[in-house]
Design goal:
This protein has a domain at about 10-35. The chain is mainly β. The protein has one helix spanning about 40; strands at about 10-15, 20-25, 30-35. The chain binds zinc ion. Zinc ion binds near residues 17, 39 and 40.
């Protein structure tokens, strides 16, 4: 598997506070996913 410079990343953003929860290397393209971070789920 080849890795190119500037690998595409999926970003998971908290839908409550807009904080980036996680970035995941992805070969499927750049996506923004929404979730809830630990602080906001309490
Ligand atoms: Zn949050």
């Amino acid at each position: 598997m080849q890795q190119k410079m500037g690998a595409k990343q999926e970003t998971i953003v908290c839908q409550v506070c807009d904080k980036v929860i996680e970035t995941i290397d992805s070969c499927e393209g750049v996506k923004t996913l929404y979730g809830v971070c630990k602080d906001c789920s309490q």
